[in-house]
Structure prediction request, 519 residues.
Amino acid sequence: MIENKFKKLRFAFNLRTSWFSCNAVIMEYQITANQYRKSGSFSYQIRALLSCYINIVLDTHLTHFTHTLTFSYILSLAMAASQVHLQFLILFFCYSYIMCSALTFTHKTRHPGFTIDLIHRDSPNSPLHNPAKTRYEHLSEAFSRSTSRATHFTAASRAASAVQASVVPAGGEYLMNISIGTPPVRVLGIADTGSDLTWTQCKPCVQCYEQKLPIFDPKKSSSYNPVPCGSPTCYTNLASRTCDPDGTCSYYYSYGDKSYTNGVLATEVVTFGPNTPPFPGVSIGCGHENDGTFNEKGSGLIGLGGGGLSLIRQLKPSIGAQFSYCLVPYFETTSASKISFGPKASVNGPGAVSTPLVKKDPSTFYYLTLESIGIGNVTLDYKKQSAHYYTEEGNIIIDSGTTLTLLPKEFYDKLEGELEKVIKGERIQDPEGSMGLCYKTKKDLEVPVITARFAGADVQLKAINTFVRVEEDMVCFAMVPASEVAIFGNLAQINFLVGYDLDEGRVSFKPTDCSKHAV
Prediction:
């Protein structure tokens, strides 16, 4: 019986299974400790346990509790050891434990995180910027993209329970640069908190949209590895997948605007700039067939959602599942928005507030619970004023890729009515028909502070977050009615340091002058 248990332990070790497998066996040993003391193969027992422990203690995924549990058990074995050579072995182990723990701690703190630029697609600093259009035309297009994106959030939410769900929100509003491969090839991608898969166009192209940047050639990268069909990465993280004749995992993603990408799932080295470490083994999509509304100056999409294939989840073992961004006002030319990853993304200090992330399907989206909105002394109860869907926890999605904030119509109508009572100005109709509450003025409009009260976090929104100039003589409310899905958009997040901590399950807000945000 004892020998079988040790075979089980060695089997767990040889397969390099999780620390839990080893500890499950160790717990079994504790139950039969008396049998160990009577066993003639006591030396073998300790050596087997040490072999397992030294391997799991070097695993940087382990907690201090895990180390302590295993360490405590082996010390209990030492108490039963009468042979001198075994006592010496235990002393050697104690020294090894201290050294291994130190190495583990050092490894865990090796990468403090990093910060890079986040570029609004319509900013004059963006390669996608069209100088022939006015800022108001850019804004009008961004508002239209908000409506389109909301439609496809709705479609994705409805399809969450379906195995074949593959429609994800179209695009986003911010861009970031990464590099993939060895040697590294630059990718300018849309940074999307509403998608998981990071992908770029790849050679050979079956159907590729026109791209100014060089198209990635996997044959020229020494670190490119296709993911096999039998891999858990393929069959647990991809809704629409097939098995290629060569046994590799292929994916298919369709976007709400009829754009799509189809290609091979592979692992690659990803880097974020000259001063950041390389991250090997990151799953990406190598798109051989891509078409739709993608811009020729971009080369893919960077998935920052909450699902298993997202960049955030994949970087967790190295730097933790944290990221934050600080968005400067639209059309800012003297400074750029920033996005940080790892410990560097922590949001704390005076003024910081946090609200829980709510786990819902699809796991890609970041759900918060909005309880009410305040205007001065008036509080509008979000849950009581809204349809049944909005009374639940996780009743609003926070998204960097949607410009406007979308609220359920019945609640929006009451909110607009309260604002009309306190804002002094000449109300006019938006000629585009996309905005609800608009005023005619060439000056800054005096508006009240609006407080978005999330569970455990009051976020005070200033005029820059709630009203936007859409014409030279017209200012409009940056919140609009929605039919089903509520979204807290990026205008409402300007000049906030917004942090997502997937390890702790929370989103934090801290009022910040993002044009002066230290990196």
Observations:
- The domain at 114-326 is CATH 2.40.70.10 (Cathepsin D, subunit A; domain 1).
- The chain has twelve helices and 29 strands.
- Residues 1-82, 91-110, 159-170 have pLDDT under 50 and may be disordered.
